[in-house]
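hey so i finally got around to running both of the ones u sent me last week. sorry it took forever, my laptop kept dying halfway thru and i had to restart like 3 times lol. anyway pasting them below in the order u listed, first the sequence line then the structure token line for each. didnt double check formatting much so if smth looks off just lmk and ill redo it

first one:
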Amino acid sequence: MNQMSKFVENFKKMFTTGQITFGIIFFIVFVVIMFFAYRQDKPLHQKFYKGNYKVLLFFLLFVALLFLMKFFLKR
């Protein structure tokens, strides 16, 4: 039995079919609503949040640096 089938079996034991269905439908509806909300607010985001990608880039680089430090200092 491979890892994926073990995961699926454990997943089926933890949740009923109704719970899994609800979770999938909730996720899809949530993503659709967030997409339309973002489209509606896009002009405001372009006006007030210029340069936010720099903050995101710095944060991602910082997290990557932490992982690299952990990896190299562990040895």
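and the second one:
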Amino acid sequence: MNNSVIGLDIAKNIFHLFTFLDDGKILKKKLKRHELLVFFANYPVSIIGISNRSKVF
């Protein structure tokens, strides 16, 4: 994964992540709070758009 923009829907315990892959497909991931830091620690530098409303994306 080498994407520059990520949409992140934040919540109390579950986070929904959205981005486009190089082939144009959409990547949707559901991460628990303890998985989020591990995911971004291993992800390339990106711009992150944060929302607290699930219907935005």
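quick thing i noticed on the 2nd:
The helical segments are 33-41.
anyway thats it, ttyl
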